[in-house]
Write a structure and sequence with these properties.
The structure holds three protein chains of three kinds. By secondary structure, chain A is an alpha+beta fold. Chain A folds into two domains: about 30 residues; about 110 residues, Beta Barrel (OB fold (Dihydrolipoamide Acetyltransferase, E2P)). Chain A contains three helices and six strands. Chain A has a five-stranded mixed barrel with strand order 1-3-4-6-5. By secondary structure, chain B is mainly alpha-helical. Chain B has one domain: Four Helix Bundle (Hemerythrin (Met), subunit A) (Up-down Bundle). The longest helix of chain B is centred in the last third of the chain and has 43 residues. Chain B is globular and about 70 Å long. Chain C is mainly alpha-helical. Chain C has a domain of about 30 residues. Chain C is about 80% helix and about 0% strand. Chain C contains one helix and no strands. The chains are: A alpha+beta, B mainly alpha, C mainly alpha. At the A-B interface, helix 1, strand 6 and helix 3 of A face helix 2, helix 3 and helix 5 of B.
């Protein structure tokens, strides 16, 4: 191996180590969303600032008004629960018990006003159990706990 | 200028045509098998069929960049020009599968998540990986001298390949919108089968791509050597 | 809902094959060009040399 190639290899290893350390430093900061517990723990600092909140839709908490397109539900991480209000039809996968990430602001009244609603589905994939049909699942979830 | 030893010979075509035909035919078969055999997912319905193109494409992309890593190190170690050309061929194929993975991921994201794209750790790191290897290919186009081109692209190739574990682990290390890797437990067997069958077939197609891209580059270099030798007036 | 899901699935497969077959065609074109250049430089008639 030539001297020049050794130099290149050493430089690459140095840059790589530096990069990995940088990634490690980011480790705690690269969070796509806060959990309800973290948002609540921020106290006054958590209000009225753009933030993403992620958690599970509390079963039985979904209220969907077809006329005004208002969607209300609660998001939990089993430690804390935050009430969410969003407008418009949710993604088709939205349903009670499903993971969601909402973008918006947590208002002082204690309601998270979402401007964007995303589904964070799990890594589980399987066909419906006997007696269930996917098409029907969608219909029931769209009505899920509805008005 | 350091000249690369003019030992590089134009490779023979051999039986690769048959290999290519079989690979493509096999991929058609595994795609059809997965598409037809898999029942709709409980939550995602037919969207589950996107798994058989998105996931294999992502895995094959990882394999391509692992090949780049190995052959870049080999080139720096031994200085054989052929190793540099294999690394370049794998990098190009990897970029193709990387781009495919990103596009298919977006097609998954819109119906399943509600958004085409988010800047979470998985999606962002995959895009960074793509840009690094696009940069790698651009670098090769700009550097004329084969020796320097090999050295510089080996450096970029190794750095780029070191991103692969970061992309893979991103969903575990950080909180992302993208879900964690599935396991045998979290996924129906028939879905696994479809995914692995397509991965295997796509791997063969990848091998064919890399071989053909290597061959084209090696023949082109052999032509350059021959032209140089001719210009020297048959001195050697 | 169902119909639009099929749209996503079908576009995923169409894009996959357009990209794979497109790249396949590109590899063959590039290879043919390299071989033609090699034959030209080495003064062989096309199809005569080792590289073909």
């Amino acid at each position: 191996m030539s001297k020049r190639n050794w130099a290149i290899l050493v430089a690459v290893i140095l840059v790589a180590t530096f990069g990995w350390l940088l990634y490690g430093g980011l480790n705690k900061n690269v969070v796509f969303f806060l959990t309800p517990k973290e948002l609540v723990a921020k106290g006054a600092n958590g209000y009225d600032v753009p933030v993403r909140l992620g958690g599970m839709v509390v079963p039985g908490s979904v209220q969907w008004n077809e006329k005004t397109l208002d969607l209300r539900f609660r998001v939990t991480d089993d430690s804390d629960t935050v009430a969410v209000h969003s407008t418009g039809a949710p993604p088709q996968m939205f349903q009670p018990g499903m993971g969601v990430v909402v973008e918006g602001k947590y208002e002082r009244a204690g309601v998270f006003q979402a401007t964007n609603l995303m589904v964070k589905h799990s890594n589980e994939y399987h066909p419906p159990r006997p007696g269930e049909k996917p098409e029907e699942m969608y219909k029931t979830l769209m009505k899920g706990g509805a008005s | 200028m350091t000249t690369v030893a003019p030992t590089l010979e134009a490779p023979r075509a051999g039986r690769w045509t048959a290999f290519g035909v079989v690979s493509i035919a096999l991929l058609v078969a595994t795609q059809a098998f997965a598409f037809v055999s898999s029942p709709p997912d409980e939550n995602m319905g037919q969207l589950e069929k996107i798994l058989y193109v998105h996931v294999p494409a992502a895995w094959v992309m990882f394999v391509c960049f692992a090949i780049v890593l190995v052959y870049s190190l080999l080139f720096l170690w031994k200085g054989r020009e052929e190793d540099d050309l294999v690394a370049a061929a794998a990098a190009e194929a990897g970029a193709v599968f990387n781009g495919l993975t990103l596009i298919l991921g977006m097609i998954w994201g819109k119906p399943a998540w509600g958004v085409w794209w988010v800047w979470d750790a998985r999606l962002t790191s995959t895009l960074v990986l793509f840009l690094v290897f696009v940069g790698y290919l651009a670098l090769r186009a700009f550097v004329e001298d084969p020796q320097r081109r090999g050295q510089w692209s080996a450096a970029v190739g190794i750095l780029g390949a070191l991103n692969v574990p970061i992309v893979w682990m991103s969903v575990t290390w950080w909180r992302t919108l993208h879900q964690m890797p599935s396991s045998m437990q979290s996924m129906a067997k028939i879905y696994w089968l479809g995914m692995f069958a397509n991965f295997g077939a796509m791997l063969l197609v990848m091998a064919y791509f890399i071989r053909r891209r290597y061959e084209a580059a090696a023949v082109a270099r052999a032509a350059e050597h021959a032209a140089q030798a001719a210009a020297l007036g048959g001195l050697d | 809902m169902e119909a639009s899901n099929w749209m996503y699935v079908i576009s995923a497969y169409v894009i996959t094959w357009v990209i794979l077959l497109g790249y396949l065609a590109y590899t063959h074109t590039a290879l043919r060009r390299s071989r033609a250049e090699y034959d030209r430089v080495t003064g062989r008639a096309p199809g005569e040399g080792d590289a073909v």
